[in-house]
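Hi support team,

I'm filing this because I wasn't sure whether my run with fe (ii) ion finished correctly. The job status page said complete, but I'd like someone to confirm that the output block is well-formed before I use it downstream. Pasting the exact inputs I used:
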Amino acid sequence: MPKTIARQKYGVYRLFVVGMASNWCGLAHSSKYNYSAMLFCYAALPYYCAAGRNFANNKTKGIMAHTLPALPYAYEALEPHIDAQTMQIHHSKHHQAYVDNLNKALAGTDGENKTLEELMSNISAYGPAVRNNGGGHYNHSLFWSVLGGNGSTPTGKLADAINETFGSLDALKEKMNTAGATRFGSGWAWLTVTDGKLTVSSTPNQDNPIMDIAEVKGTPILGIDVWEHAYYLKYQNRRPEYLGAIWNVINWDAVAQRYEAAL
Ligand SMILES: [Fe+2]
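And here is everything the job wrote out:
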């Protein structure tokens, strides 16, 4: 049984027992069988239980375990650029493991009451398990949301900002690809809004730009995973080839929504 549900039931049962005990005591100590008092107690019982339920709900507010978000498209939707098997393992195994390990790392700590964004923005206060697995959960959740496009290009304010900042979409792609290709080991390439401006950066491991320890801070609107697990089945050691292909499946509408929300 999920922890939150168990706690809610425990809270309701506890208050129910207290209510029944009060009722019984009222009867047992009444030398004249005060029926008015008894009726009052019974009438109050539903409210007592409702109060218990509310108490339990309030107590557990915010203590929801992190969960794996469903992909908004099928595993094979990004073929031939990202193969279905890679997507299936990446989402259902790797991302699921980050979620599970984050929940384990947070169990019984103050971090249980924090949102994922709150954890990230104060990540220096937590140990490596929260940093790595929380970052993994945040980064992959963003990653899935900006994939699934069909070769479209940016439009509107985002297109204007890309042209103004980088000169062209191709120049942005080149800068992102360089950031991803030159990230030693595992990490991410990011397009971030920092003080209203678009910035390209990269982070190691599962770090990201909303972490308080990030070199380049900001709101990420596009992230590209350059861990080998993101491409190795199809591209083996050819990370640049994977980086070249992924632009075919970027969902620019999703990136544009993130851009406007970040301004
Ligand atoms: Fe990944």
